[in-house]
Automatic annotation (TrEMBL):
<dbReference type="InterPro" id="IPR037069">
    <property type="entry name" value="AcylCoA_DH/ox_N_sf"/>
</dbReference>
<dbReference type="InterPro" id="IPR046373">
    <property type="entry name" value="Acyl-CoA_Oxase/DH_mid-dom_sf"/>
</dbReference>
<dbReference type="Pfam" id="PF00441">
    <property type="entry name" value="Acyl-CoA_dh_1"/>
</dbReference>
<dbReference type="InterPro" id="IPR013786">
    <property type="entry name" value="AcylCoA_DH/ox_N"/>
</dbReference>
<feature type="domain" description="Acyl-CoA dehydrogenase/oxidase N-terminal">
    <location>
        <begin position="7"/>
        <end position="117"/>
    </location>
</feature>
<dbReference type="InterPro" id="IPR009075">
    <property type="entry name" value="AcylCo_DH/oxidase_C"/>
</dbReference>
<dbReference type="GO" id="GO:0003995">
    <property type="term" value="F:acyl-CoA dehydrogenase activity"/>
</dbReference>
<comment type="similarity">
    <text>Belongs to the acyl-CoA dehydrogenase family.</text>
</comment>
<keyword id="KW-0274">FAD</keyword>
<dbReference type="Pfam" id="PF02771">
    <property type="entry name" value="Acyl-CoA_dh_N"/>
</dbReference>
<dbReference type="GO" id="GO:0050660">
    <property type="term" value="F:flavin adenine dinucleotide binding"/>
</dbReference>
<keyword id="KW-0285">Flavoprotein</keyword>
<dbReference type="InterPro" id="IPR036250">
    <property type="entry name" value="AcylCo_DH-like_C"/>
</dbReference>
<dbReference type="InterPro" id="IPR009100">
    <property type="entry name" value="AcylCoA_DH/oxidase_NM_dom_sf"/>
</dbReference>
<feature type="domain" description="Acyl-CoA oxidase/dehydrogenase middle">
    <location>
        <begin position="122"/>
        <end position="218"/>
    </location>
</feature>
<feature type="domain" description="Acyl-CoA dehydrogenase/oxidase C-terminal">
    <location>
        <begin position="230"/>
        <end position="380"/>
    </location>
</feature>
<dbReference type="InterPro" id="IPR006089">
    <property type="entry name" value="Acyl-CoA_DH_CS"/>
</dbReference>
Length: 384
């Protein structure tokens, strides 16, 4: 059993860390306050080879493994979750094309994302559909050699900046099974009838673009269908183990970033003639923050390793990692604010932003409650 991260991966980590410190940290507060998409940072991220990191080399990507991607995510989120999400989400939906798409779809849609010329998105949730994916009502009907799509999608990352989206649609409302009537269809944002309304006022990840998508008789060619008609739901479920693992890595990054800033502040801040780091109460907080963050990291790395090695416990591990790391992100960020005292309650210090950013990790890609349901189901079904 080897827990050592290979030297070449550590080198990647160091490069990502330097990018975050040099290009993200100085402007993170500005983009957060303005709820502005960081186009300038994205250009630099492309030059650094950070976009579309999971896209295979043959389509212009870096082809990072799940473990390498988890490290990339952790490093960027330890600097700023909002801009980090912008960087790591440019290829949202690409997994569906990589696994089920035609060679033509891969060339047409993956390469521009990997080369920084396009942004993707995945559109699943709807105004009335969150955790219950099988209740999606956005409808796609065949009309000759085209699909005609009507409906709404909600909380879509990259909604107003994306060039195309992998959209889960109901293509057979009369299907015998509630899971067999859905298909994934790629919809370009420049199609007639496509509208994206930016969602503002978010508590956290404010520089990341989020929108409601509206499809009003949007027409796309039949070749925009990804994979097999009616298999969309099952196709989608195959990727949740990896995407939830990456959210766990987000949580680890947020927790680590909050801990590091709390440690630095505690060593500098003086009260009663000494740094507050000399007080046992603060030492205990820091010790627990560091311990739980490291525990979350190890669980996340194991889940990432399992994605690549198809471990039979992967589904449970991914949900455990996502649930635990997101909880630790919230708890550590909370303690970081507490250590900062009144200074942590204003945006003069990063921990205020980390505190707001942490919460989303317990919501998207399946809520905490859903993760516990999955863990229990796997426990009772497999007895691991």
């Amino acid at each position: 059993m080897d827990f050592e991260v290979p030297e070449e991966i550590e080198q990647v980590r160091d490069e990502i860390r330097r990018f975050g410190e040099n290009e993200i940290e100085p402007v993170a507060s500005e983009y957060d306050e303005k709820e502005k998409y960081p186009w300038e940072v994205m250009e630099k991220a492309q030059d650094a080879g950070l976009l579309g990191s999971n896209i295979p080399i043959e389509y212009g990507g870096v082809g990072y493994s799940p473990v390498e991607n988890a490290i990339l995510v952790e490093e960027l989120f330890s600097i700023d979750a909002g801009i980090a999400l912008c960087i790591t989400s440019t290829a949202f939906g690409a997994d569906a094309i990589m696994e089920f798409g035609t060679e033509e779809q891969k060339e047409e849609y993956l390469r521009p994302v990997a080369e920084g010329d396009a942004i993707m998105g995945a559109a699943i949730s709807e105004p009335d559909v969150g955790s219950d994916v099988s209740s999606v009502s956005t409808h796609a009907e065949k009309d000759g050699d085209e699909w005609v799509i009507n409906g709404n999608k909600m909380w879509i990352t990259n909604g107003t900046v994306g060039d195309y989206f992998v959209v889960l649609c109901d293509t057979n409302p009369d299907a015998s099974s509630r899971y067999s009537g859905f298909s994934q269809i790629l919809i370009e944002s420049d199609r007639d009838g496509f509208e994206a309304d930016k969602i503002t006022g978010k508590m956290g990840i404010r520089s990341s673009d989020t929108a409601e998508l509206i499809f009003d008789d949007v027409r796309v060619p039949e070749e925009n269908l990804i994979g097999t008609r009616g298999a969309g739901f099952m196709q989608l479920m195959q990727f949740f183990d990896e995407t939830r693992t990456m959210v766990a890595a987000q949580g680890v990054g947020i927790a680590r970033g909050a801990y590091e800033r709390a440690l630095e502040y505690a060593q500098q801040r003086e009260q009663f003639g000494q740094s507050i780091a000399e007080f046992q109460a603060i030492q205990h907080k820091l010790a627990e923050m560091k311990t739980t963050t490291e525990a979350a990291r190890q669980l996340t790395y194991k889940s990432a390793w399992s994605v690549e090695n198809k471990d039979e416990q992967l589904t449970a591990l991914a949900s455990m990692a996502k649930e635990y790391a997101s909880r630790i992100a919230v708890e550590v960020a909370d303690e970081a604010v507490q250590i900062h005292g009144g200074s942590g309650y204003v945006n003069d210090f990063d921990v205020e932003r980390f505190y707001r950013d942490a919460k989303i990790t317990q919501i998207y890609e399946g809520t905490t409650e859903i993760q516990k349901n999955i863990i229990a189901r796997e426990l009772l079904g497999k007895g691991f």
